[in-house]
Structures are given as C-alpha cells and as structure tokens.
Amino acid sequence: MEIMEIKKLQGVIEAILFTMGESVELSRIASAIEHDEETTRKIIHSMMDEYDAENRGIRIIELDNAFQMCTKKEMYEYLIRIAKQPKRYMLTDVVLETLSIIAYKQPVTKLEIEKIRGVKSDHAVNKLVEYGLVEETGRLDAPGRPLLFGTTEEFLRRFSVQSLEELPTLDSEKLEHFKEEAEDEAQLKLDI
Predict the structure, then answer these.
(1) Taking Cα atoms as reference points, which of 92, 71, 95, 91 lies closest to residue 83?
(2) Contact 155, 180 (CB under 8 A)
(3) Listed residue (57, 63, 58) closest to 23, CA to CA
(4) Cβ atoms of residues 27 and 41 within 8 Å
(5) Can you give the pTM of this predicted structure?
(6) Angstrom distance (rounded) from CA 167 to CA 160
(7) Alpha carbon 138 to chain centroid distance?
(8) Which residues on neighbouring strands pair with residue 168, listed in sequence order?
C-alpha cells in the first residue's frame, strides 16, 4: 500500500474513532475503510505507535477486538483544571427576553417567540440551548411539525426555583402598562 493511501486511511479511522466517542469494533472499521481486518488492525497499531512517539494528548486503545480514542492519563491534570473553571454565560437582553418568553409560554415554537419579539430569534434560542437552559421538548402537531422549546432543570437550578409555578407573576396593572408601551413603540416604528 502506498504511503498516501495509508495516511488517508489513518485519517478516516481517526475521524471514525473521534466522532463515535466510544469503542468501535474492528470489523466495522474494516468495513468502513473497505479493507480486511488484519490490514485494518496493522494500520490502527501503526497509528497507536505514532500517537505515542509524537507525544500527543490522545491515544487509541484496544478493547476486546474494538478500538477507542481517548485522552492520555498524563493529560488528566490539565483536563481537571479546565473542567473546574466555571462556565460563563453571557445572557444579553435579547437572550433574557427570549428565555422569559420560553419560560412563560412553554412549550413554544420559534415562530411564536418571533411573533412576540417581532424579530428573528434563531441566535437567542440556539444560545439558550447551548447554555443548557432550554431544550427541544417535541414537535407541534401542525404543518411542518415545528420544534417546541421549553426550559430545563438547569434553568430551574440557575434561577433558584424549584418549579415553573415559582416564577414571578405580573399583576394585571403592570401587564397592561407593558402592553401600552409595546403598542406605543410599535406605532412609533410605523410612523418612521
């Protein structure tokens, strides 16, 4: 086999092991790269040697006729340092506004959120999903079957509430005031 072909196969195997994140049977890897198991095993063992020689942070291990990519033990100390660092979320006004709508209206679709906000909300919803504060809760039984979104346990934890019933309620007077402000703002935009 040519060196270029071996390097390509190593890249494919690396991608498979990295993406799967768990052990992958030798037979499945061999089938994916369209080679026999003996050749595939030799290629993987060659990769294992290269990873060790190059002093990389990852390694490939063999587990009962399967292979898995994992972190070298020597790197655990550094991983712990990163894992212990608190995650910093940037909850901008737009993201907070979107989160409020989801919390009070859930389950809710992006279209419903956008109707309330008056602008696209893809970025804000994606950020909330990324932060683990919002998740997909299913699909609406309507044409196109849009995704429904709701808050997560992480949302309850972060905002120190045990259930959604503990969310603050707005009295009708304040609600009416907000409604009037929104209508006035909408009218100003139309006049411009």
Answers:
(1) 71
(2) no
(3) 63
(4) no
(5) 0.49
(6) 10
(7) 17
(8) none
